[in-house]
Specification:
Blueprint: E1 4-5, H1 19-29, E2 33-39, H2 50-63, E3 70-78, E4 98-102, H3 112-124, H4 132-147, E5 153-154, H5 165-174, E6 178-182, H6 190-199, E7 203-206, H7 219-227
Parallel strand pairs: 1-2, 2-3, 3-4, 4-5, 5-6, 6-7
Helix pairs in contact: 4-5, 5-6
This protein binds zinc ion (2 copies).
Length: 248
């Protein structure tokens, strides 16, 4: 089983549970760690507010003695510009124990120019009809995001925008970023997962749970791991705890 779930949501973004409900479920399942990662600040209507961060930190301290499971405070930052920036300012990085980052459609662009370069084309693109040129462009975005050095976990690779996974995997290895197999959906083909596996990429299995009863549930990616007969020692949170302390 996984010992920690590092991608979960609460009511502070678009989740439906509270921090304490998340902790209760994690404790019930016997997890040792759970990380709360509400959506980044530029997520349209669903992003957490900077003022929520302090509140969450206080709650984590408050509940510390009540639970055996350790609670970490992360963020699911948005990769939101064509050159791979995430919506977390350098001075905000230390508010969080670690950073998960991924692409999401409903995010305010950084500028009008960048909206036309990245936000709008990515928003409007049809998943079934991506060209190689578009794929190249998004690959560059993902690789640059990893190279910012701010990311611990790359969330749901290929969700929303496609990339050449071998190039993203290479950057992830160079910058010690864990590639997530997401609990809601694995957006990569089996071949793409195998490509990353054969390269030696480190995988992490997270629930991306938006409801308390989904916390810790990684049945979807586990089915992929089992079907492809991947060695579970390659999953950084499988019967061990990953190192989430990378700082820039
Ligand atoms: Zn996400
Ligand atoms: Zn999420």
């Amino acid at each position: 089983m996984i010992w920690g779930d590092y991608h979960t949501h609460t009511k502070n973004s678009d989740g439906h549970g509270t921090l304490i409900e998340t902790l209760r479920q994690a404790q019930k399942l016997g997890l040792r760690q759970v990380g709360i990662t509400d959506h980044g600040f530029r997520h349209v209507a669903r992003g957490m507010k900077p003022r929520d961060v302090d509140k969450m930190r206080t709650q984590i301290e408050q509940y510390k003695a009540e639970f055996d499971v350790q609670c970490l405070l992360g963020i699911e930052a948005n990769i939101y510009t064509s050159d791979g920036q995430i919506d977390l300012l350098p001075q905000q990085r230390d508010l969080f124990d670690y950073v998960v980052a991924g692409y999401h459609k409903a995010v305010w662009s950084k500028s009008i120019a960048d909206a036309f370069r990245f936000g709008i084309p990515a928003f409007c693109a049809d998943w079934t009809s991506y060209t190689d040129a578009q794929r190249r462009k998004y690959t560059k975005t993902m690789v640059q995001a990893i190279k910012t050095g701010k990311i611990n976990v790359l969330a749901h690779l290929n969700y929303g925008i496609p990339a050449f996974v071998s190039e993203v995997g290479k950057a992830a290895m160079d910058y010690d970023v864990y590639v997530e197999l997401n609990g809601k959906r694995v957006s990569m083909t089996d071949d793409e997962v195998m490509t990353l596996y054969d390269m030696g990429v480190k995988f992490i299995l997270n629930s991306d749970g938006h409801y308390p009863n989904k916390i810790g549930n990684v049945d979807v990616p586990l089915a992929v791991v089992d079907r492809l007969k991947l060695d579970k020692s390659r999953i950084v949170n499988w019967e061990k705890l990953p190192d989430m302390t990378k700082k820039i």
